[in-house]
């Protein structure tokens, strides 16, 4: 027999009490001690107190109630039980979880964030119960030969509701047998509806929230619109602006968070808004039609939904507030040293590194035999001149467009004709249009306009500033991407031709129609000669020799631009990693673990307290808090998988000549925060929840 009882902190008494609780076969769950149960016996309770009964007495002399007969006085530290000599009992002491503080006992570790494959990492619930019962038997009854099953889902549900049932009983007991009052305080559905009805008082606020959600949904639609998509072909893909801009990706994340915050806040107040016990027979999580319409990535038990919403909501709000505060602080630092920062970007980053040093590097590879290697002079000079001419033209554009003014300026940025850019365009030819509108030497990023934009970006969050720097780096280094992409295509095409011509010496040929390599014997059996002609062998050998001799020169340019492009991608990767940390770091979870680890349920644990000579064992039941490894598990997985840029993929792409890139896994980030996939359905859910009447 298993008795579950809360350890009392009050002064022990030798008086007689009746035990109110629940009974499941050999399991007794103690809820309340009462001195008088006449009212309770005359009018059995209904509603959430259904099943509550008198299951025994404490310090009873001759109790007529079959069940527990406990003895608890000043001489005993823990209650003992009157029983036969050959019977063995176990008392499990626990602190009733406080429902309002989102405390509960669970065999399932709470899922703080979602990630791909997390729902398959845990064992089935029945298997976990077997493991817990086995641990209990090993501690309570180490000599037992047949394992009992003291714990099940019903027992855990009653334990989690112990604090709430006790509160309901006290309210019912004070109501003087008023059935209407009992019905009013007993039905939990009306209690939840009463909380929700408070929002009706703030009707203007609900309308404002609905308007904000509508605007957010429209902006998300614009950011996810696929430009250039062929509507006639369902499998065609267009181009989204979020694919190229880190600022717009950050804006999409913020819009989806603000769009879901109202629903997430309501779920924190009442989990039945998304979870309905009546729906548990229809789907495994018991989600109602609104949560199914939102398509939430929830792989958790019903108890964890409320706590997960609470933690994710406050963690996101905490990170957003910190993001804004850090942005405002960095904005003051930037404007305090604006001239020095602008000079560094103009002189060092743009003019020196991106142009002067790159110009010298291309010249070194083209004309000066790099590292002592003898390259083809004619090919190196020809390819180098093409890259240098493009670099000079791109420098003229960037000096006039992308440089930042170092001084305050309240005038102009536009004028007609003239200037270095206009003269350079006329010298290059092809754009000698009189009156061509260009920027003056101060550039479009003049202080009044650029500082206003920069101040706005910093005030909405330092993450937007990092995204702006990533986009700025991608724009000013666009010529490096073009050089790398061009050299990679030339190198890849040359390697493919060499592979094809190499089959000439192996007696094989490439079949264009079937896209495969065939032996020449196959053609001889079909009536062909099966051998190459002499002129074919000479031509193929000549082309192969020419390409193999020119390959080192092409490879030198390809290696140079590959390393420069790799350096740019590493800087972008660092910026994207900072964005992941600023947007998804579980800072609130760490603070919650330090403050109240009971909310971070990691499973059940039993602690041996003592035992006496009357075959009674006392255990302590409590939650096992999540470890830091479990807290950071999904975050580290997101950090690794949100950006597909690894050494394993870079080296094969370099050898094959395939362009390397940094691919963003935005769906994985949204899934991590448990944001709804159908974000446009949040407005319908909000209107339904706020219009619900009690």
Automatic annotation (TrEMBL):
Protein name per UniProt: Phosphatidylinositol N-acetylglucosaminyltransferase subunit Gpi1p
Coiled coil: none
Organism from which the protein derives: [Candida] railenensis
Transmembrane segments: 200-223, 460-484, 537-563, 569-592
Biological process according to GO: GPI anchor biosynthetic process
Keywords, alphabetical: Glycosyltransferase, Membrane, Transferase, Transmembrane, Transmembrane helix
UniProt key word Transmembrane helix: yes
Pfam family, one: Gpi1
InterPro entries per UniProt: PigQ/GPI1
One example GO MF annotation: glycosyltransferase activity
GO cellular component: endoplasmic reticulum; membrane
């Amino acid at each position: 027999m298993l008795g579950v009882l809360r350890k009392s902190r009050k002064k022990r008494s030798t008086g007689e009490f009746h035990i109110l609780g629940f009974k499941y076969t050999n399991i007794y769950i103690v809820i309340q001690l009462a001195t008088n149960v006449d009212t309770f016996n005359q009018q059995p309770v209904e509603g959430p107190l259904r099943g509550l009964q008198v299951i025994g007495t404490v310090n009873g002399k001759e109790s007529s109630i079959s069940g527990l007969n406990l003895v608890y006085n000043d001489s005993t530290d823990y209650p003992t039980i009157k029983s036969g000599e050959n019977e063995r009992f176990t008392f499990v002491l626990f602190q009733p979880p406080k429902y309002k503080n989102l405390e509960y006992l669970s065999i399932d570790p709470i899922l703080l964030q979602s990630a791909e494959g997390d729902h398959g990492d845990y064992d089935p619930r029945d298997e976990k119960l077997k493991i817990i019962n086995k641990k209990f038997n090993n501690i309570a009854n180490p000599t037992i030969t047949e394992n009992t099953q003291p714990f099940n889902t019903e027992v855990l549900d009653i334990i989690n509701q112990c604090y709430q049932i006790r509160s309901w009983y006290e309210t019912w007991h004070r109501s003087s047998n008023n059935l209407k009052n009992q019905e009013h305080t007993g039905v939990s559905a009306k209690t939840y509806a009463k909380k929700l009805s408070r929002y009706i008082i703030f009707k203007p606020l609900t309308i404002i929230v609905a308007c904000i959600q509508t605007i957010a949904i429209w902006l998300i639609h614009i950011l996810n619109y696929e430009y250039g998509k062929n509507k006639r072909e369902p499998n065609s893909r267009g181009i989204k602006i979020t694919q190229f801009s880190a600022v717009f990706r950050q804006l999409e994340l913020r819009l989806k968070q603000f769009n879901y915050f109202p629903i997430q806040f309501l779920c924190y107040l009442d989990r039945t808004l998304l979870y309905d016990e009546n729906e548990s027979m229809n789907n495994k999580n018991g989600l109602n039609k609104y949560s199914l319409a939102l398509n939430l990535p929830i792989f958790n038990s019903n108890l964890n939904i409320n706590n997960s919403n609470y933690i994710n909501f406050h963690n996101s709000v905490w990170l957003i507030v910190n993001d804004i505060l850090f942005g405002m602080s960095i904005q003051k630092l930037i404007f305090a040293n604006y001239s020095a920062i602008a000079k560094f970007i103009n002189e060092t980053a743009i003019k020196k590194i991106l142009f002067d040093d790159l110009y010298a590097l291309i010249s070194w590879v083209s004309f000066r035999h790099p590292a002592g290697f003898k390259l083809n002079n004619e090919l190196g000079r020809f390819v180098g001149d093409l890259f240098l001419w493009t670099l000079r033209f791109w420098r003229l554009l960037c000096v006039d467009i992308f440089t930042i003014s170092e001084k305050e300026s309240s005038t102009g940025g536009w004028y007609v004709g003239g200037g270095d850019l206009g003269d350079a365009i006329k010298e290059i030819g092809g754009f000698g249009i009189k009156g061509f509108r260009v920027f003056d030497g101060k550039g479009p990023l003049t202080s009044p306009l650029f500082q206003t934009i920069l101040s706005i970006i910093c005030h909405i969050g330092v993450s937007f500033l990092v995204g702006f720097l990533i986009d700025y780096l991608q724009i000013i280094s666009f010529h490096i991407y073009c050089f790398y992409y061009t050299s990679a295509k030339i190198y890849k095409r040359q390697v493919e031709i060499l592979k094809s011509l190499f089959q000439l010496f192996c007696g094989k040929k490439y079949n264009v129609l079937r896209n495969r390599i065939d032996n020449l014997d196959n053609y001889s059996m079909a009536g062909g000669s099966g051998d190459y002609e002499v002129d074919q062998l000479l031509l193929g050998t000549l082309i192969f020799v020419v390409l193999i001799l020119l390959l080192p020169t092409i490879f030198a340019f390809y290696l140079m631009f590959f390393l420069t492009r790799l350096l740019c991608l590493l800087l972008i990767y660092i910026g994207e990693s900072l964005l992941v940390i600023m947007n998804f770091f579980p800072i609130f979870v760490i603070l919650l673990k330090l403050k109240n680890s009971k909310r971070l349920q990691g499973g059940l644990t039993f602690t041996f307290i003592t035992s006496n000579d009357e075959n009674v064992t006392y255990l302590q039941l409590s939650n096992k808090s999540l470890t830091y490894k479990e807290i950071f598990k999904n975050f580290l997985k997101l950090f690794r998988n949100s950006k597909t840029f690894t050494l394993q993929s870079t080296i094969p792409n370099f050898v094959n000549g395939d362009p390397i890139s940094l691919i963003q896994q935005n769906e994985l980030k949204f899934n991590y925060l448990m944001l709804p996939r159908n974000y446009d359905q949040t407005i319908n859910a909000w209107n339904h929840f706020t219009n619900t009447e009690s």
